[in-house]
Amino acid sequence: MSSTQNVKCKGKHFTWSKPMSHMLLEILAEEALKGSKPSSTFKAESFVKVATEISQKFNVQCEPKHVDNHLKTVKKEWGIITKLKNKSGFGWDDCLKMITVSKDVYDEEVKIGDVALAIQSLSKNQLDVNVLYAEVMKIEGFDEITLGEAFDHLVQNEMLAKAFMAKNANLRKNWVQNFVNQHYYRPAC
């Protein structure tokens, strides 16, 4: 087995240089003109062609999956560029091939972006009460009323509820048992 195959088997990702990316785009543009892009994506043969030509020209082992993945990355980046270009206050410098924006507009966008990230972070951290209920009610060995009270207690104590959801089934059952022991008075007979 060659060393190149060893690297491939270990899952090393393929690194694209700018000249490789340009070559990919040039070949795919030619392929599209020849009709090798019947829909929103290219035919498999187009990816094989790009991989073969890049491998030969740059003395690397490029595979069709590398081409497909890099094309997805290029599309994603182009989508971001297009979105920014269309925003008020943003422009495009064709000589430098980059987005342009004044410091004031940039600073405002950063503030808005920070707020959006904070809101997104908060929404990811929200307790899903329906999921919590389903998980509590799955616990075996307790009656429905006891589990319902444990659920109500968790809803009133969001941090406890989040910790409960992070636990595995055995630890959840143990938590409910501790809840029962602490909240129910059972006189000894």
Automatic annotation (TrEMBL):
The lineage of its organism: Eukaryota, Viridiplantae, Streptophyta, Embryophyta, Tracheophyta. It holds the Pfam family Myb_DNA-bind_3. This is Myb/SANT-like domain-containing protein. Residues 15-107 form the Myb/SANT-like domain. It comes from Populus trichocarpa. It comes from the Eukaryota.
